[in-house]
Design goal:
Blueprint (H helix, E strand, L loop, with lengths): L3 E5 L6 H12 L2 E4 H9 L3 H8 L1 H15 L5 E4 L10 H8 L1 E6 L2 H10 L12 H19 L4 E4 L5 H9 L5
Parallel strand pairs: 1-3, 1-4, 2-3, 4-5
């Protein structure tokens, strides 16, 4: 079993939900990178974006990732853009297992429309604008996401499947 497991994928793909369940199942700690950044910064991610900009957020995200790479027995839910910046996909692959939770744009749109989370990158978009945005951004990020060690279909995904995948990677 890998000492560090990084869940990657688009916002709304279920990284935090599946990550916390997976961590409990395998007896690991769970860390939501975005939540850790907010706690460290003392402000929300939307606040960081508006006050400091995306570049500062990405630097903090990178620094937090490097700290997490020193921890053992941890499941990490990354931010949706994390693997696409500052060589972070390579860092994650070098320090643990990366699992890409893959979902089609239409499913992501439906999930994000009903999400209670404040997401600065999609704030104020209509349903059609949101689908267009997701489709476009997902196509930009796909190259990074595809570098994950494992890829799973996120539709109807159960945390048990993730645990099985990690226990026996050859069967997948």
């Amino acid at each position: 079993m890998y000492s560090r497991i990084f869940l990657i994928g688009f916002m709304g793909s279920g990284k935090s939900t599946h990550g916390s369940i997976l961590a409990r199942k395998i007896g690991y700690d769970f860390v939501d990178m975005d939540q850790l950044i907010e706690e460290t910064a003392g402000m929300t991610i939307p606040g960081i974006f508006s006050e400091h900009g995306e570049q500062v957020f990405r630097k903090w995200e990178h620094d937090i990732l490097l700290e997490l790479c020193n921890r053992e027995r941890v499941v990490v839910s990354t931010g949706g853009g994390a693997p696409c910046h500052n060589d972070m996909i390579r860092i994650m692959n070098d320090h643990g297992a990366t699992i890409y939770i893959q979902l089609p744009p239409e499913v992501l749109k439906d999930r994000l429309l009903t999400s209670k989370t404040d997401r600065p990158l999609i704030k104020g978009k209509s349903e059609s604008e949101l689908l267009e945005y997701i489709t476009s951004l997902l196509s930009e990020r796909e190259n990074y996401y595809q570098q994950a060690r494992f890829m799973v279909n996120g539709v109807n995904l159960r945390a048990e499947e993730l645990a099985d995948l990690l226990r026996d990677p050859a069967s997948h």
